[in-house]
Amino acid sequence: MLLTFFDIETAHGRSTVELQAGDFPSLGLTADLLVVSAFERCYAPVPGTLIGRLHEAYGLQLKALPIALDLRNSPLKCWVSAELDWPDQPNQLSRFRRIAVIEGLMEWSDEDDLLPWPPFNRLFSLLALLPMRQIACATVASPLLGSGNQGLDVVAHYPDLLHAYHQAFRHVPELERLILFDKTDAHLQVLGEAIDAALERPAPQTMRLRLPGASPAVSGLQDLLSSRSSPFTRPSSQAAQDIRELLMLLRSEEASLVALGNHSRRVVEQLVLQSLSDEASSEKLTLYKGIRRLQQRGVHPWVIQCLHQVRCFGNWMGHPPRGGSVMPVELHDVLAMLSSLQRVLQAYPWLKA
Asked: With helix as H, strand as E and coil as C, how does the chain read?
C-alpha cells in the first residue's frame, strides 16, 4: 500500500515520488521500467530476493532476457532489457515494460566510508540516457537499491538520497513518477519521516482521520467504486489500481489523508487523460491543462469545478507548505473532496460520443 508521496515541481511540470510497502507483484503497479540490483553478472533467482520473487510470480529468468542497452563495461555497470511481453499476466499483478539491472557491490572511498548511494546515482544517470535510445521511463519502480543481500545501511544516507531525487527529476524531464517499494515498511517509514521533515510536513500518523461510513460522501463513493458495470472499474482501466486502493482506504478504520489525496488525484488524472486520448499534441498534458481542455470542449461547469477540487486536495497533501503556514485538514475538507470525486465519477464519461 501507499505510505506517503511528495511532489517535485520542475521547469517541466510536476513529478511525484511514492513510497509503497508490500510484495512487488501484488502491489498492482504499472511501470515503464522496473529496477533490480544484482551482484555483477549474478542473476540467479535466489529465494527471498526481488529477482527470486520475479521468477516465482512471472517465471522470469534475468539471464535469458534480450538486452536493449548494455552498459555493464562502463562506470554505470547496468543494462536494460528489451520490451517484455506478458500475454498471460494476471491483471492484479504489477506490470512493467522493461527491466533495468544495476550491478556491482557498494563502493568505498579512500577514507573507508561508503560513497553516498552509488546504485541510485548510477540509476539516475542511466535514466538520463534512456530518452536518447527511445526507451520510455515516465514511470519507474525501484526497490531501495542495495538494502537486501548487499547489506547497505539504508538509514545512514537518506539526506543524500533526497538530494539525488531532486536532481534526478530536474535533469530527467521524462521521469514523471518514481515508485520506491520494499517488502516491509521498516525502512520506508524512516525515509518517509525524513521526507516529511525536509518538507516541513506533519508526520503521516498525524494526518489520519476516521471516516463516517454512514455519510453519503463515503458510502455513496464506495458503492460507485465497487460497481463492476462502471467503465472506470474495469481491470483494463488505467485507474483500476488506484480505485482498489481508494476502496481499501474508505473501508479502513482510519484513512491516511496523504494516500487518500494521492489516489483520488491519480484516479481523476487517469480519467482526464483517457478522455483526451484522441487529441494529438506534442505538449505534455498535465492534469490542470487537461481539465481546462475539457472545459473548452463543453464539459459541465460543475464537473469542472469538482475535478479541480480533487486536484487541489491531492496537491495540498503532496506539496510542501508555502510561507511556513500549515492549514490543518478537517473532516469536512475530506468529505467535500470525496463528494466531488463521487460527482465526477457519476458523470463519467464526460465527453459524449
From this structure: CEEEEEEEEECCEEEEEEEEECCHHHHCCEEEEEEEEECCCCCCCCCCCHHHHHHHHHCCCHHHCCEEEEECCCCCCEEEECCCCCCCCCCCCCEEEEEEEEECCCCECCCCCECCCHHHHHHHHHHHHHHHHCCCCCEEEEECCCCCCCCCCCCCCHHHHHHHHHHHHHHCCCCCEEEEEECCCHHHHHHHHHHHHHHCCCCHHHCEECCCCCCHHHHHHHHHHHCCCCCCCCCCCCCHHHHHHHHHHHHCCCEEHHHHHHHHHHHHHHHHHHHCCCCCCCCCCCHHHHHHHHHHCCCCHHHHHHHHHHHHHHHHHHCCCCCCCCCCCCHHHHHHHHHHHHHHHHCCCCCCC
